[in-house]
């Protein structure tokens, strides 16, 4: 009770700041200034009834939800699906992937009045929260209304588990309020059980089931033609703040490491950073073409700034080799399964704790390679761009790795059916 009171008081204090935060983030990403009423339980769409509610906080969770959503559509035809997000990039990804197949809303901030308004409007009969998204009022209100609420594709690192355990008197009732949990691995399952979750099963990682959309294949072919079909192309994908500076410095110090004519494509993780990365390229005296220019890349230009959203599959398909960002600095890494699904060999930095099991397994099987720093990355990029056979070996290993672990969506759908859905 003490912690619930503290949580409510803190929320009340932060309420005025939320509007400022949305306005501030909307300076660089206007999506945050759209449909603000939904954040507080106010809706412009008509009320829904007997829906399946899927919450996918951002881009990665939204993409991971795609194979599960497709199965739910098959098994429950005609049942409305509500997809909620917290980030503008997640919502944009949902629009690109699902169009009008789902009703997209912001998940309201975790105030009781907003959560109750959302549940009254969406009227879900089933709630599926992706990965680690646990909001106390949302979960407990679902329990009070007898809405079956599951944490799915759940992961729980040792670090996160320790943080939850530190406030066990507050967090254990939240985990216990869940109807069940479908974990990615047995280690995740054990940590979740220890935190108070019940009916915990292991269904695997939905991200292994991801498929390459046909429209991405067509766009990938178009991008490759624009990049130059005969020149070596590598992509620094989902880079985070600070990584581009490391990459550009290493490239400028050892340009001879790459084959002549190599094109470097940099795609920052967050769209609000597109312009700052452009400024870094200019500051280094490097000519570049923006993806948004919709033009061919001249042979004398060695850089492309990938300033677009929802096109990562196409970028990977247009590249000979991919570095997956968030891993040169201690940021935890990003999803490496998408480039593997396109058959693109993968390089990673040493900081991949957000995807530890997948990264370790992929590297041990030769589907991916690790580098210690930016200098080592550029050397490895050059070596692999020179070596067609080595890239093909990595490509084959990556596809076998994915195939071995597919099936999580089907297992999860069967488990949900067995629980009464």
How would you characterize this protein structure?
This protein has 421 residues and is an alpha/beta fold. It folds into 2 domains: 17-211 and 407-418, 3-Deoxy-D-manno-octulosonic-acid transferase, N-terminal domain (Rossmann fold), CATH 3.40.50.11720; 214-405, 3-Layer(aba) Sandwich (Rossmann fold). Helix content is 47%, strand content 15%. It has 17 helices and 14 strands. The protein has helices at 2-25, 59-75, 88-98, 112-122, 136-144, 158-166, 168-177, 186-194, 214-227, 243-253, 274-283, 312-317, 337-341, 356-364, 374-386, 388-405, 408-418; strands at residues 51-55, 81-85, 103-106, 124-130, 148-154, 180-183, 200-202, 233-239, 263-268, 288-290, 303-305, 321-324, 346-348, 368-370. It has a 7-stranded parallel sheet, sandwiched between helices. A 7-stranded parallel sheet has the order 10-11-9-8-12-13-14. Strand 13 (346-348), helix 14 and strand 14 form a beta-alpha-beta unit. Helix 10 (243-253) packs across helix 15. It is globular and about 65 Å long. The two termini are 32 Å apart. 43% of the residues are buried.
What's the topology here?
Elements: H1 2-25, E1 51-55, H2 59-75, E2 81-85, H3 88-98, E3 103-106, H4 112-122, E4 124-130, H5 136-144, E5 148-154, H6 158-166, H7 168-177, E6 180-183, H8 186-194, E7 200-202, H9 214-227, E8 233-239, H10 243-253, E9 263-268, H11 274-283, E10 288-290, E11 303-305, H12 312-317, E12 321-324, H13 337-341, E13 346-348, H14 356-364, E14 368-370, H15 374-386, H16 388-405, H17 408-418
Helix pairs in contact: 2-3, 2-17, 4-5, 10-15
């Amino acid at each position: 009770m003490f912690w619930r009171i503290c949580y409510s008081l803190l929320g009340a204090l932060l309420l005025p700041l939320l509007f400022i935060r949305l306005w501030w983030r909307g300076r660089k990403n206007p999506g945050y200034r759209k449909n603000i009423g939904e954040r507080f339980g106010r809706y412009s769409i008509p009320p829904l009834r007997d829906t399946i509610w899927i919450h996918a906080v951002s881009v990665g969770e939204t993409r991971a939800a795609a194979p599960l959503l497709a199965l739910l559509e098959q098994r429950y035809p005609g049942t409305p699906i509500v997809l909620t997000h917290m980030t503008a990039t997640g919502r944009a990804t949902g629009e690109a992937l699902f169009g009008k197949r789902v009703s997209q809303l912001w998940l309201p901030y975790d105030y009781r009045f907003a959560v109750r308004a959302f549940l009254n409007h969406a009227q879900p009969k089933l709630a599926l929260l992706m990965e680690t998204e646990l909001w106390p009022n949302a979960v407990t209100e679902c329990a009070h209304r007898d809405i079956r609420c599951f944490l799915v594709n759940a992961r729980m690192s040792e670090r996160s588990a320790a943080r939850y355990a530190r406030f066990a008197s507050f967090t254990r009732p939240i985990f216990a309020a869940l109807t069940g949990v479908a974990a990615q691995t047995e280690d995740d399952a054990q940590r979740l059980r220890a935190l108070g979750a019940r009916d915990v099963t292991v269904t695997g990682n939905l991200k292994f089931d991801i498929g390459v959309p046909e429209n991405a294949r067509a766009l990938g072919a178009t991008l490759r033609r624009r990049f130059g079909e005969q020149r070596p192309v590598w992509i620094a994908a989902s880079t985070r703040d600070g990584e581009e500076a490391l990459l550009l410095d290493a490239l400028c110090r050892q340009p001879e490491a790459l084959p002549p004519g190599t094109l470097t494509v940099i795609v920052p993780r967050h769209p609000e950073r597109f312009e700052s990365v452009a400024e870094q390229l200019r500051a280094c005296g490097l000519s570049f073409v923006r993806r948004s220019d919709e033009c061919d890349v001249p042979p004398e230009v060695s850089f492309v700034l990938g300033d677009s959203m929802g096109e990562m599959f196409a970028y990977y398909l247009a590249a000979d080799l991919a570095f997956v960002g968030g891993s040169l600095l201690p940021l935890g890494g990003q999803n490496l399964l998408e480039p593997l699904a396109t058959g693109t060999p993968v390089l990673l930095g040493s900081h991949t704790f957000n995807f530890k099991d997948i990264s370790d397994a992929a590297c041990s099987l030769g589907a991916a390679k690790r580098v210690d720093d930016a200098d080592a990355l550029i050397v490895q990029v050059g070596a692999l761009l020179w070596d067609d056979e080595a890239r093909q070996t990595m490509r084959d290993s990556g596809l076998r790795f994915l195939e071995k672990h597919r099936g999580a969506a089907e297992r999860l759908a069967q488990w949900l059916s067995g629980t009464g859905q």
